[in-house]
Design a protein that fits this description.
Helix content: 10-25%
Structural class: alpha+beta
Radius of gyration: 21 Å
Order of helices and strands: HEHHHHEEEEHEEEEEEEEEEE
Shape: globular
Length: 348
């Protein structure tokens, strides 16, 4: 996803935050004893367990292999950075932004049930020094059956996911853009299924993703995973899949792979596995395949490392993390989307 995408999505977030702040022409019809929906701060819970966002170290060189920490594209930046679509913190930040919108849109009644309605608003935002009028619409609809996951995302998300309500969001200024958010909230779970597509406003740069989060409020265990596809006018493809989970003991397990055909005369699949405790010690493994659909790993680029807190050096043994680094857990080439992902709710 390009920087244009980030700007466009931020505008949508702005509109969402203004929706119940008296901005523009309020056409909502919700009345009576209703209150805004309150969600648990998902980003904070994930960040409490995951290794921190990576920044290149300063000072003395580390004993860890330089491929993880240094150079123009250090591996840790590809994994725990925030710029590129597959990176953990990019996905966390995008997810949190949309959850902020959900909290602004959704009203609940005295029994905690969502208020079904269509909400519209307009606002003026300064874009590149030009005042721009934005028109926003969001519809909240109750669902009466489990949601079927598109075939291209089933290897990561499963075949169906049970959510109770759908929030469909459109922006008139981005007619090709679409955001669909499925939500289920109870005392024992907080489940979110998020689809977004073409929020960059550039028809030559199609992009789409599906993300899923399931959280148990009683102990903060969670599953956060997703898959996405991006392309550009030069027919370069960039797709990915990720999955991070945590148990009540605060350890994390993480796997992520990315696909790119933007290398000379071939394509590539980069694969990360890892897990442990970010405050004491954790391990990571990198493997790659060139071509991406090769049955044999590229033996030139195989890295394993054990890290202490904040990616510090550790004397831990990589063999202690065999369960996290089982190569059977790798998201392979067959998992990578090779075309735009469709919404799980095409009928809406």
């Amino acid at each position: 996803m390009s920087r244009k995408s980030i700007v466009a999505i931020s505008l949508i977030a702005f509109c969402g935050l203004m929706l119940f702040a008296g901005c523009g022409d309020d056409n909502t019809t919700a009345v009576g004893d209703t209150t805004p929906l309150e969600l648990i701060d998902i980003a904070e819970i994930i960040e409490n367990v995951a290794p921190p966002e990576f920044s290149a170290p300063t000072g003395s060189p580390s004993a860890v292999d330089s491929a993880w920490l240094y150079g123009e594209y250090p591996l840790l930046e590809k994994v725990f950075g925030s710029e590129n679509p597959p990176t953990l913190y990019r996905n966390i930040n995008d997810f949190k932004m949309f959850m902020d919108i959900v909290e602004m849109i959704v009203r609940v009644d005295a029994d905690g049930n969502f208020v079904e309605d269509t909400y519209t608003d307009t606002t003026t935002e300064d874009i590149g020094g030009t005042p721009t009028l934005l028109h926003y619409s969001a519809t909240v609809t109750a669902l009466d059956a489990a949601t079927d996951i598109p075939a291209a995302a089933q290897a990561v998300l499963g075949e169906t996911i049970d959510v109770d309500y759908l929030i469909a969001i459109t922006l008139e200024e981005l007619p090709e853009g679409l955001v669909h958010i499925g939500v289920k909230i109870s005392e024992t779970e907080q489940t979110i299924l998020l689809y977004d597509a073409n929020m960059g406003g550039e028809s030559d740069d199609p992009e789409s993703s599906v993300k899923y989060l399931s959280l148990d409020p009683s102990d903060s265990t969670f599953v956060f995973k997703g898959t996405g596809y991006c392309a550009d006018a030069d027919e370069n493809i960039y797709s990915y899949a990720f999955d991070i989970t945590s148990d009540a003991n605060s350890d994390f397990s993480y796997r992520m792979s990315w696909y790119s055909n933007d290398i000379p005369d071939s394509d590539l699949l980069g694969c990360i596995l890892g897990g442990g405790n970010k405050d004491t010690e954790f391990a990571l493994m990198y493997r790659q395949y060139v071509p991406a659909d090769s049955a044999v790993m590229d033996s030139t680029f195989m890295y394993d490392a054990v890290f202490g807190p904040d990616y510090s050096d550790s004397e831990g043994l990589i063999t202690d993390y065999a369960d996290y680094l089982d190569e059977e857990l790798i998201f392979g080439y067959d998992v990578m989307p090779q075309a735009m992902l469709t919404t799980p709710w095409e009928e809406y």
